[in-house]
Amino acid sequence: QQQVKQSPQSLIVQKGGISIINCAYENTAFDYFPWYQQFPGKGPALLIAIRPDVSEKKEGRFTISFNKSAKQFSLHIMDSQPGDSATYFCAAFAGGYQKVTFGTGTKLQVIP
Amino acid sequence: EAGVAQSPRYKIIEKRQSVAFWCNPISGHATLYWYQQILGQGPKLLIQFQNNGVVDDSQLPKDRFSAERLKGVDSTLKIQPAKLEDSAVYLCASSLVTGGSVPLHFGNGTRLTVT
Fold first, then answer.
1. Does A89 touch chain B (CB under 8 A)?
2. Is B85 helix (H, G, I), strand (E, B) or coil?
3. Nearest-CA distance from B43 to chain A in Å?
4. Are the beta carbons of B57 and B48 closer than 8 angstroms?
5. A50-59, A97-106, B57-66: which has the minimum mean pLDDT?
6. Cβ atoms within 10 Å, residue A103
7. Which range has the worst mean pLDDT, A11-20, A76-85, A97-106?
8. Which of residues 24-43 of B touch A (CB under 8 A)?
9. Bond preceding residue B8 cis, omega within 30 of 0
């Protein structure tokens, strides 16, 4: 029940296109959903996060869409750039001393 | 601010040997985490400290892994004896307070290869 399922495993997008990564969860106690970006040889870094009381959050070219009834959320990267090439992890957190549960990751490659 | 520091960056050992990793969190961060990231997978929490007390070590293989956080600052993670399946990147992270709703700041990790 603590799992967060992420898809696709890998994604190739042309420069200027839209990258979409999807995640689904089962545990209804999750109340905070961050996305982390990881470049090769680096640790993950927080990119954007959302709480389930809103359906969408946008920061620059990055948007999280959240569907509470379907228990799904997704990351959209608009106008994708080669510099966005990285591995993206969705995550979920249930509050208090609960641990953050990470998805399996999506390796994004943006080609010129 | 200085980020989370980890050393060494790489380590290659033979199975049944021991190894230790070191982490220095961001100054003032009360919570420190050790994650294991196997190639192609998301980070898995091994242990979480709040100051120098353990909050969660439910996924730490305690027969071979140990961790400590001295004086609520630096931390070491030890594996003894290592197994082939321990090959992974070991990430240290810290946060200002406990809770996933605050950003986790990760170090660049230690890549362990067990042969």
1. yes
2. helix
3. 6
4. yes
5. A97-106
6. 24
7. A97-106
8. 40-43
9. yes
CB contact under 8 Å between B100 and A105, yes or no, is no
- % pLDDT > 90, chain A: 83
The identity of residue A112, as a single letter, is: P
Return the structure tokens found at B68.
Answer: 């400590």
**Among partner residues A32, A41, A99, which is closest to B101 by beta-carbon distance?**
A32
CA distances from B27 to A26, B20, B23, B46, B71 (A): 36, 22, 12, 22, 13
Quote the minimal CA–CA distance from A98 to chain B in Å. Answer: 7
pLDDT, tens only, B66-88: 999 988 899 999 999 999 999 99
Record the tokens describing residue A6, joined without a space. 């992420």
Residues of B with Cβ-Cβ distance to A103 under 8 angstroms: 42
- Higher per-residue confidence, A90 vs B1: A90
Q: Is residue A40 less than 8 Å (CB to CB) from chain B?
A: no
Cα gap A91→A86, rounded to integer Å: 16
Burial class of A59 by CB neighbour count within 10 A (0 to 12, 13 to 18, 19+): exposed
Cβ partners under 8 Å of residue A29, min gap 6: A94, A95, A98
pLDDT at A76 over 70: yes
Chain B environment of A36 (Cβ under 8 Å): 104
What residue type is A23 in one-letter code? C
> Cβ distance B38 to B55 under 8 Å?
no
For testing contact with chain A, the best of B106, B108, B110, B111 (most A CBs within 10 A): B106
